[in-house]
Every structure is written in C-alpha cells, then in structure tokens.
Amino acid sequence: MERKVVIFDHPLIQHKLSILRNVETSTKDFRELVNEISMLMMFEATRDLPMETVKVETPCGIAECKQLAGRKLAFVPILRAGLGMVDGCLKMVPSARVGHIGLYRDETTHTPVEYYCKLPKDIDKRDVYVVDPMLATGGSAVDAISQIKLRNPRKICFMCMIAAPEGLEVLKKAHPDVDIYCAALDEKLNEDCYIIPGLGDAGDRIFGTK
Ligand code: PRP
Ligand code: URA
Q1: Less CB within 10 Å around the terminal CB: N or C of the chain?
Q2: CA 202, CA 140: separation in Å to the nearest integer?
Q3: What is the atom index within ligand 1 of the atom nearest the CA of 137?
C-alpha cells in the first residue's frame, strides 16, 4: 500500500491551530489546544485500523458489531514538546503504550542530539505513532524514527502540528514507508531553522519556559 501524507483541512483543526499560533495565547490554552488537536488528528490517523465482526447481546436482541481487531498501538513523543501531544492521543486510544525519545536540536548546528530512549518491550508487535508538534529541518523526526526502526515495529506513522516543506521532504525521502500526518504545511524555515510563520518554540510554549 502506498504511504500516506495527510495535511488536515478539517475546520475544527484549522480553527484551533489559528489560536495555537497566536503569540497572545497563554501557556494553559496552548497546552489544551495541543491536546485537542492531537485528539482530532489521532481520530483520522487510526482510520485504517483493522476491524472484526462480533455479536453483542443488547437488551433487545443480538447486534452484529465491528470492533478493533486487536491491533496494538504505541505512542512515542519526541521530548520535550512531543509530550504535549500524548494525553490527546491517549484519549482516543487509552490502552496504547507510551515510549519516549529524548532529542534536542543543537542551537548552532540545528542537528538533533539524543539523550534518552525508552520504548515498550513488545514494540515489534505494535503500530507506532511518533508525535512531535514541529517538523522543521526534519532531523529530529528522521533520527527518532531510525532509532525506533532498529526495534522492528509493525508500522510507523509520524504526526505533527506544523511542518516546513524542507522538513517534510527530508522525512519523506529518509523514511518512504512512514505515513505522515500534519495539521498544517507552512511556508519555509528561517535562518535559525524556525518554521515561518509557525508558532514559535513549541516546547517553550507548552511548558512556559520562555
Ligand atoms: C523542537 C521540536 C522538534 C524539533 C524540530 O524541539 O519539538 O523536536 O525542534 O526541529 P527539526 O525538525 O529541525 O529537528 P527542540 O529541539 O526545540 O527541543 P524541545 O522539544 O526540548 O524544546
Ligand atoms: N522547533 C520549534 O519548536 N519550532 C520551530 O519553528 C522549529 C523547531
């Protein structure tokens, strides 16, 4: 099956994203919006999960229903900012496991530096959703996914709020088998590799560190 690259045009996602981008939005609202958008994106990103038919006894008879066919999921946020997306994802799939990959961008080279990696033991039996609000140069996402691939997961998807065209191309080329979901595709990167117009530093805005 051909891999998916989805840029969301849903009105609820676009509306919430417009508030998220606003420099006046408070830390509290920013956090809530990141969770809400993640929830809506996860709803769509799980569209192809396999189903099975089951019979359910209702108070009035037997209903033939569809249920998820036991597919196991894992969410892997890229620390720190990816943490902001986890609660929203778990609201959609509460039974998912959560792994963590710690990466930060070196301020001068803009390349990712890994400082932590803890993944579920049975990740080889799971579909993995790597989550991070920002896809800028693509370095962090590419490295995180390469790390996860060493553990042979069944499938990998990447989910972000805002992507730069440069980062999207880098990720598509490095990992042609990974489905990609973005709430918005922005214009470009600036000389500091920040997304323009973007929303600023996602980690700082989620955790109120600036
Ligand atoms: C941000 C963001 C991504 C990365 C994207 O994290 O959350 O992980 O930058 O940039 P890239 O596509 O150019 O690699 P940052 O390094 O600022 O760390 P933080 O989440 O700890 O704030
Ligand atoms: N990381 C962020 O948090 N924002 C950007 O615009 C680029 C990288």
Answers
A1: N
A2: 14
A3: 13
pLDDT at 130: 98
Measured in Å, residue 199 CA sits from the centre of ligand 2 at 8
Bridge-based pairing of strands 97-98 and 134-135 is unpaired
Q: Which amino acid is at 168?
A: L
Look-up of token digits 């991070």: 132
Beta strand 5-7 with 179-185: parallel, antiparallel or unpaired?
Answer: parallel
As a whole number, mean pLDDT of residues 76-96 equals: 97
Topology at the third CATH level for domain 5-207: Rossmann fold (3.40.50)
CA atoms within 13 A on the CB side of 21: 15
pLDDT digit string, tens, across residues 9-63:
999 999 999 999 999 999 999 999 999 999 999 999 999 999 999 999 999 999 9
